[in-house]
Design a protein that fits this description.
291 residues, alpha/beta, Rossmann fold, seven-stranded mixed sheet, 8 helices, globular, disordered C terminus, SAM-dependent_MTases_sf, S-adenosylmethionine-dependent methyltransferase activity, Methyltransf_11, Methyltransferase type 11 domain-containing protein
C-alpha cells in the first residue's frame, strides 16, 4: 500500500511539473514578436463584443497578462488566474489548480479562456470547471490554436520532435469543443477565425503580411492560426447568482478559507486587495482519453 501511494504521488508530481512547464512556455511566447502580434489580433476581435457585455464578474484564464487582453467594457470586477503564487501577482488573481477553481457555482458573467485548454492534461475537466462557474445566460469565450493551419502543422512537428513544452498540449478542433460545450449545456453563438499570418518570429515579415488578416477575416477563412468561440449557458435558474460571489468577496476581504482536502486554500491578510487562493493537488490525467 505505501508503494502504491508513493507511485500515485509521483505521477501527480509529474503531471503537475508538465503543466507548469507548459504554462511557463506560453508565458514566454506571449512576450515574443509573434506572440504579441497574435494577442493584438485577438484583442481587436474580442474588444467590440467585450464592450457590449454587461455584468459584474469576469474571470480570465490563461498565461498572458490578462489586463492586456480584457481591458475595456463595463464589467466591474475582473479576476486573473495563476497556477502558482508569486509575489508580483496582480490584484484579484485566483491561484488554484485548473480543475478546482475555488469560486461559487454560476457566479461569473463572463469567462475568457485564452489558450487555457492547451495547457491542460485533462482539458475536458478544465472546460467543465469553467462552465460550472458561468451563470445562466452568462458567456464563455474560448481562444485556441487551430489544428488545421500552418500553426497546427508547426505544433504537430514540434510535438513529435519533443521540443518546446508549448507544443505538448492537446490540439482541440472547433468541432470537438462544440461537442463538449453542447454536453455542458452551452450554446455556441459565434465563431471567429483570427490571425492569418505565418508562425515566424520575424517582425518584418509579420508586418509585411498584416494585410492577410484584413483580407482573410472578411472571407472567414477557416485556416487561421486561432479560433475564438463565444458560447452562452442555456440552462439553470434565471435568478442572478452573482450575489454569491459578492457575498463571498465582501465577507472575507477577497479571501475565502476553504475546507481541508482538494478545496484547501491559504489564508492571506484580510487587508490585501488580491484574491490569492492556495493551490491544490492536481488530479492524475485520464490516460484513456485521447485528444
Amino acid at each position: 500500500m505505501p508503494a502504491q501511494i508513493s507511485g500515485s504521488e509521483d505521477a501527480q508530481a509529474r503531471v503537475r511539473q508538465q503543466f507548469i512547464q507548459r504554462w511557463k512556455a506560453w508565458q514566454q511566447f506571449w512576450s515574443t514578436p509573434l506572440g504579441e502580434a497574435l494577442q493584438s489580433a485577438q484583442r481587436r476581435s474580442l474588444s467590440p463584443t467585450l464592450g457590449a457585455v454587461f455584468g459584474h464578474h469576469l474571470l480570465y484564464l490563461g498565461a498572458s497578462d490578462h489586463s492586456a487582453l480584457i481591458d475595456g467594457g463595463d464589467i466591474d470586477h475582473r479576476m486573473g488566474w495563476s497556477p502558482i503564487w508569486q509575489p508580483d501577482l496582480p490584484d484579484a488573481t485566483v491561484v488554484a489548480e485548473p480543475e478546482w477553481l475555488p469560486l461559487p457555482d454560476e457566479s461569473l458573467d463572463l469567462v475568457v479562456m485564452h489558450h487555457w485548454l492547451e495547457l491542460q492534461m485533462s482539458p475536458h475537466l478544465a472546460l467543465r470547471e469553467a462552465a460550472r462557474l458561468t451563470m445562466p445566460r452568462g458567456q464563455l469565450v474560448i481562444m485556441g490554436m487551430n489544428p488545421l493551419s500552418l500553426w497546427g502543422a508547426q505544433s504537430w512537428w514540434g510535438r513529435h520532435r519533443g521540443g518546446n513544452p508549448r507544443y505538448q498540449g492537446p490540439r482541440l478542433s472547433f468541432r470537438r469543443l462544440q461537442d463538449w460545450l453542447s454536453f455542458l449545456d452551452m450554446r455556441v453563438e459565434r465563431l471567429e477565425w483570427v490571425f492569418h499570418r505565418p508562425p515566424v518570429q520575424m517582425p518584418r515579415l509579420l508586418s509585411a503580411t498584416q494585410g492577410f488578416d484584413y483580407a482573410l477575416d472578411r472571407l472567414r477563412c477557416p485556416f487561421a492560426a486561432s479560433y475564438m468561440i463565444w458560447a452562452r449557458k442555456r440552462v439553470g435558474s434565471p435568478i442572478y447568482n452573482g450575489r454569491r460571489l459578492r457575498q463571498w468577496v465582501t465577507s472575507t476581504g477577497l479571501v475565502q478559507p476553504m475546507p481541508q482536502g482538494r478545496h484547501a486554500v491559504n489564508r492571506t491578510e484580510s487587508s490585501s486587495k488580491s484574491a490569492h487562493v492556495g493551490t491544490m493537488p492536481s488530479p492524475v490525467r485520464d490516460s484513456d482519453i485521447s485528444y
